[in-house]
Amino acid sequence: MTEITEFNKTKLLNALGMAKKAGKIVTGEELVIKSIQAERARLVFVAHDGAENLIKRMTDKTTYYEIPMIDTFSTAELSHAIGSERKVIAVQDKGFAKKMESLMK
Predict the structure, then answer these.
(1) Is the per-residue pLDDT at 1 higher than 50?
(2) In the chain, helix, strand, coil percent, each to 5?
(3) N or C: which end of the chain has fewer CB within 10 A?
């Protein structure tokens, strides 16, 4: 994955918070997997400090279903952005996902 600047990391986390407020995200391992399998997920965030099997499972699912995955953030950063303790988040809105992907370049 390409290196994301600190400024873009902040903007990315802010966009994630806005997506949460708009009701366009799903959190939790099982709900995210169901969202991926139903092809509703557009972008998946996984905490880099999560369990190895969690990261592998999400990597396998996102690769198979060709969904972009971001593993740049820690659990604390993701949790702070959405206001609840989570290690896995799926963005289900095409507009939010496109904006977030543009910040990764």
Answers:
(1) no
(2) 55, 10, 35
(3) C
Cα 46 to Cα 58: distance, rounded to the nearest angstrom: 8
Give the integer Cα–Cα distance in Å for 77 and 99.
19
Q: Which residues pair with 43 in a beta bridge?
A: 91
What is the CATH topology of the domain spanning 25-103? 60s Ribosomal Protein L30; Chain: A; (3.30.1330)
Cα(46)–Cα(85) distance, rounded to whole angstroms?
A: 12
Which contiguous run of DSSP H or E holds residue 90? strand 88-91
Q: How does pLDDT run across 81-92, given as a tens digit for each residue?
A: 999 999 999 999
| Domain definitions of the chain by residue range | 25-103
| Contact call for residues 71 and 62 (beta carbons, < 8 A) | no
Tell me which residue has tokens 């994955």.
1
